[in-house]
Amino acid sequence: MDEQQARPGGGPPTWWRNGPPMWWRHGPPSWNRGEDGAERAPRFPWRSTLLITVFVMAGSNFASRGQHGREDIDPVARVLLLVATGLLLWRKRYPVAVAFGTSAAAMVYLGAGYPYGPIFLAVAVACFNAIVMGHRKAAWTAVGALWIGHVLVAHWLYPWLPPSGDPAAPWGQEGVIAAWVAAVVAVSELARTRREQWAKERAERAQAARRRADEERLRIARELHDVLAHSISVINVQAGVGLALLDTDPEQARSALTAIKAKSKEALGEVRQVLDTLRTPGDAPRTPAPGLDRLPELVEQAASAGLTVEVEGEPPRLSPGTDLAAFRIVQEALTNVVRHSGSRHARVRLDRDDGTTLRLRIDDDGPASGADAGGSGNGLAGMRERAAALGGTIEAGPRDDGGFRVLAVLPLKTAAEVKEDR
Asked: What is the 3-state secondary structure (H, E, C) of the chain?
């Protein structure tokens, strides 16, 4: 009521609007395992056991005042009460033994004619704990045995048990006890089911976190591979040119060294950008990710490495993810031509199919200059991973005329962007 008065316009309380509390959605801290699903070593529940013991001891003294036909609380009764509650200290480590132990102590307590009281709380806690930890049959057996033992004592064995002259208990009392047992079992089963749901949700969260980490690791590996492979290939070619012309044409050698300096600086900048995402995940990059608008730079860099590139078609407007993937695929394909093909000529063609997909085709005239025609396994695997992450495909292989072709089909928009448009 105070919360509604404090908020203008009233309305439902905060817990109703925001959903169930955090402990109900993810489980109490004492029930949580590690996010990797590892079982934690059980600890002794000192505080709860102490509170239950104090409550049972004090409550039994209070309950005995209204039960004049029962035996008084004497030292033996107190020992039985302490045994029943003290066993709860081991309920996390030995749930089955504690469930049967508390039931046996309660049965001896009732059979000795002591007054009814909160000793049943110890049995309820022990059986609740056993059911939640998965020992359902043992808990049912323990509480069922206690109920059957009470029926025998209250209706058949009472003439031979204290207190003397105690009449048989009314059968209606057994219905109350049966309802109490059913309530304990029902609440315990509900808690067990909820705990299994929490465990399943924690496992799913841990699996999703591992999957995201693996995807991010692969993404960074692809970025580093594409940046370094392309840059080092250009640097290698320019270094060879510089060494060959160092004595005969110093000016051309100077140009090669200048190109090496510029390319290495660019590569360091891109590597630094990739590493920044590791240091500050989630922050916006300091420089925009490359896209097909930088295709002329790739052509110029390939020309400095001795490769002539013809570009056909205009790049359409792409989503950032598709734009980066298309750029990296062209970059890797041209790098492979420089490194693995004897051809000094390549063609890049961009086509837009049906307004929904982009077709990238990179051809060279071959022949291959080594066993790794078309590129190394990491390069082709990286291209396929990029395309598959967007829902696209990659086809790479030799052509009939001796050259090599890389054909990429990429969606213009990612699945997430299509959903947003809808």
From this structure: CHHHHHCCCCCCCHHHHCCCCHHHHHCCHHHCCCCCCCCCCCCCCHHHHHHHHHHHHHHHHHHHCCCCCCCCCCHHHHHHHHHHHHHHHHCCCCHHHHHHHHHHHHHHHHHCCCCCCCHHHHHHHHHHHHHHCCCHHHHHHHHHHHHHHHHHHHHCCHHHCCCCCCCCCCHHHHHHHHHHHHHHHHHHHHHHHHHHHHHHHHHHHHHHHHHHHHHHHHHHHHHHHHHHHHHHHHHHHHHHHHHHHCCCCHHHHHHHHHHHHHHHHHHHHHHHHHHHHHHCCCCCCCCCCCCHHHHHHHHHHHHHCCCEEEEECCCCCCCHHHHHHHHHHHHHHHHHHHHHECCCEEEEEEEEECCCEEEEEEEECCCECCCCCCCCHHHHHHHHHHHHHHCCEEEEEECCCCCEEEEEEEECCCHHHHHHHC
